[in-house]
Structures are given as C-alpha cells and as structure tokens.
Amino acid sequence: MRLDTELREEEAAAGARAHLADGDVADVPVTEIAPELPVTPELNAIELVPLDGIRDRKVRELCFEIAYGDAVDGTVKRIREIVEKFPGDVPISIALRDVPKELESQATDGNGKLRIRLNPHFRVQPGPALSAAFEELRGKLHYQF
C-alpha cells in the first residue's frame, strides 16, 4: 500500500484567520493562535491491497476443541474425513473439554482439557472451507500463530 501525505497547513491557517478580527495581522505560528486546529499530516491511500488469506498463511497449528461427550465414533470418523479432504502443511490437534474426573489427571493443560496431537501425516490447509467443515461438528477451531 502506498500512502501520500499532505499537510493541512492552509486549512489551519484559514481557520486561524477566522479567529482574528478584521485588519489584525498575526506573526505567530498558527498553533499558538488556534491550538485546537490540527496541523497533522493527512494520509490518503492510493492503492488498497486485500488481505484475504493472509491470516491462513501465518498459522503454526490448528486445534479443534470438542466436548468429551461429543467425541463419539461418528465424530472421530468425520474429523478424519475433513482432515484428509484439506491436506496441507499445518499440524492439527484435538482438545477434549469436559473430561471425566478420572481423566483430569491426564489433562495436558491447566484448563482440564485433554489434548491429543495427531500423527504428522494429518496436516491441513487452513481456510474458510476447512472452518466451515469443522463448524458442523459442534466444536471450535482455534488458530495458533
């Protein structure tokens, strides 16, 4: 993106002249006469570049969070289908929340979530289509940068 700057001194000087009585002459800077008038540069964009997809290229890892009770065979199979449908370079892991008391000691983070790292074979390409596919499974897809 290229930016051009323009000083708004003429506008500030015109505003300062409006504060002076007719016939008065001011040899002081505009900022002393009318400090409320800005004399800052104005930035005008000449070209806008869309940032679509930039977030997806900076992802280090994806984590799909789902409730322990929702992680049934059908859900696990669907997760595998989604991961295989969107192959890429970004590793993915599964975080199970609301784990039973007997499994809390095995939780890998301080929030009581059991984190499962998938085989490095299962890597994905982040994007809107992948996010939409995971939204169907009643879980949350977290991007880690």
Structural class: alpha+beta
Query: N- to C-terminal separation?
Result: 24 Å
Supply the number of helical segments.
5
Low-confidence stretches: 1-7
Radius of gyration equals: 29 Å
Q: Which of globular, elongated, flat, extended, rod-shaped describes the shape?
A: elongated
Strand content: 25-35%
Order of helices and strands: EHHEHEHEEEHE
Number of separate domains:
2
Number of beta-strand segments: 7
Brief characterization of the structure:
By secondary structure, the protein is α+β, with helices and mostly antiparallel strands. It contains five helices and seven strands. 28% of the residues lie in helices and 27% in strands.
Write the layout of secondary structure elements.
Layout: E1 3-7, H1 9-19, H2 30-33, E2 41-45, H3 54-57, E3 61-67, H4 73-85, E4 87-97, E5 114-117, E6 123-124, H5 128-135, E7 140-144
Parallel strand pairs: 3-4
Antiparallel strand pairs: 1-2, 3-7, 4-5, 4-6
Describe the structure.
With 145 residues, this protein is an alpha+beta fold. The protein has two domains: 3-45, no CATH class; 54-144, no CATH class. The protein has five helices and seven strands. It has helices spanning 9-19, 30-33, 54-57, 73-85, 128-135, and strands at 3-7, 41-45, 61-67, 87-97, 114-117, 123-124, 140-144. Strands 3, 4, 5, 6 and 7 form a five-stranded mixed sheet that branches. Strand 3 (61-67), helix 4 and strand 4 (87-97) form a beta-alpha-beta unit. The relative contact order is 0.18. The model is unreliable at 1-7 (pLDDT under 50).
